[in-house]
Amino acid sequence: GAGVSQTPSNKVTEKGKYVELRCDPISGHTALYWYRQSLGQGPEFLIYFQGTGAADDSGLPNDRFFAVRPEGSVSTLKIQRTERGDSAVYLCASSSGTGRKYNEQFFGPGTRLTVL
Amino acid sequence: AQTVTQSQPEMSVQEAETVTLSCTYDTSESDYYLFWYKQPPSRQMILVIRQEAYKQQNATENRFSVNFQKAAKSFSLKISDSQLGDAAMYFCAYRARAGGTSYGKLTFGQGTILTVHP
After folding, report:
1. How far apart are CA B110 and CA B99, in angstroms?
2. What span, in angstroms and rounded, lies between the C-alpha atoms of A56 and A53?
3. B7 contacts in A (CB within 8 Å)?
4. Interior CA angle at B43 toward A1 and B4, to 5°?
């Protein structure tokens, strides 16, 4: 597709359940980012990948959160034992690279996660 | 750690008028980018304008311009000839330009909701 896509667009789950959120970056983009946006707040960085490897996972809040990008394209954010505080919009972005050269991050429409 | 602060939770403007959104940031780095993003209700984050810290000239993009004051760590967005389609949440964001493992990530402010009155 032409842009970053995320599925599902909305996800409702119960406390304690496991969820997976998917991100399809723009074709050819090597860098991929996950952000979390709580209601009325700015996005907060979670993790970014350069290729298949997580270059920086310092924003993951705890060990219930995990993300993978096994083939350097699609990424999945996995949340175990969900809590009500995990409710937020999860945004994914991709760019053609990182480094000194400017590479714009293009954002997807996000997945709204609601934990009941 | 870098921080970005937007002190105006909400702003409003009349159609065709000019409005300025404020942003301050804190960083110990000298080489970085600053951005303004627009987020309409569709949630899609759209880049409005960017500024390289090493450039003294303020960036402009059509009706959008910035006032970048590096010493004061201030970065405001001016929207001229406001249009109804400008109504959205606006975020100021920072990104380090080089160095370290986390220079790709964006640090966002809390956002300013802009309402445009016809």
Report:
1. 26
2. 9
3. none
4. 115
Give B62's contacts (C-beta < 8 A, 6+ positions apart). Answer: none
Chain B CB contacts of A93 below 8 Å: 45
Give per-residue pLDDT as tens, B53-108: 999 899 999 999 999 999 999 999 999 999 999 999 999 999 987 665 556 789 99
Number of Cβ within a 10 Å radius of residue A26: 18
Place of tokens 């009706």: B63
pLDDT (tens digit, 9 = 90+) per residue, A50-67? 899 988 899 999 999 999
Q: What does pLDDT average to over chain B?
A: 93
Cβ distance B43 to A109 less than 8 Å, yes or no, reads yes
Tell me if B105 and A48 make a contact (CB, 8 A cut-off). yes
Give the chain B residue nearest A101 (alpha carbons). Answer: B97
The predicted structure's pLDDT at residue B56: 87
The string of pLDDT tens digits covering residues A16-26 is 999 999 999 99
Chain B residues within 8 Å of chain A (Cβ atoms): 4, 6, 33, 42-47, 50, 52, 91, 93, 97-98, 101-111
What is the amino acid identity at position A69? Answer: R
The C-alpha of A82 sits at a distance from chain B's nearest C-alpha, in angstroms, of: 23
